[in-house]
Design a protein that fits this description.
It is built from 6 helices and no strands. The protein is mainly alpha-helical. It has one domain: Ferritin, core subunit, four-helix bundle (Ferritin, Up-down Bundle).
């Protein structure tokens, strides 16, 4: 899934640092570390959104399964929305949106592109199960670690979207003989 949440954290770090500067109090090591962590999460999330959209576009072209096509369409819609929700944080952090899919996604596309029919569908489903499981864990960790309320709210919303995606792809996986991933209980 790879969600767009990093710019928000950086923006919050900038705001926090500016507030500290006004009071002549330097940011603490913990504040600086959290801001760096938040920025890294935001960068990764932004790239993840681009990657999810790119793979979903391939699925729309190649899939022969209506469930997979519906899921792919949802990925395009929801990951575009997630990018839009994180854009203000990215702008404040000075982060530019990724202009192309990651090298890992390009490699995944090459593997998927040579497949067709049921083979393509199962490989895409498996990739989405794995990716959304990993993404959900990353969102959950960011919710716990960020100290910035506005960004935390945006990450929590993103976490809910990723959770819904994982639940949806797990159902599709079960119907198509692909192993689902466990979905952890909510926070």
């Amino acid at each position: 899934m790879k969600v767009a949440v990093f710019p928000a954290m950086l923006a919050l770090a900038v705001i926090s640092t500016a507030a500290s500067a006004k009071s002549n109090t330097p940011p603490t090591r913990t504040q600086a570390s959290t801001a760096h962590q938040d920025t890294k999460f935001l960068e990764k999330a932004n790239q993840g959104n681009v990657d999810e959209i790119d793979l979903a576009q391939l699925a729309l072209k190649k899939s022969s399964n209506d469930d997979v096509k519906n899921f792919a369409q949802k990925m395009i819609h929801d990951h575009t929305m997630l990018m839009d929700n994180m854009k203000p944080f990215a702008n404040e952090a000075g982060l530019q949106p990724p202009s192309h899919p990651s090298a890992a996604t390009e490699a995944e596309k090459l593997k998927l592109d040579v497949l067709s029919g049921e083979s393509f569908d199962k490989a895409y489903i498996k990739a989405m199960v794995q990716d959304h499981s990993k993404d959900l864990a990353e969102f959950r960790q960011e919710v716990k670690s960020t100290g910035y309320p506005a960004f935390k709210s945006a990450v929590e919303q993103g976490e809910q979207v990723v959770r819904e995606h994982l639940e949806m792809i797990n159902q599709i996986a079960k119907k198509n003989g692909v192993a689902p991933a466990p979905v952890p209980a909510g926070n």
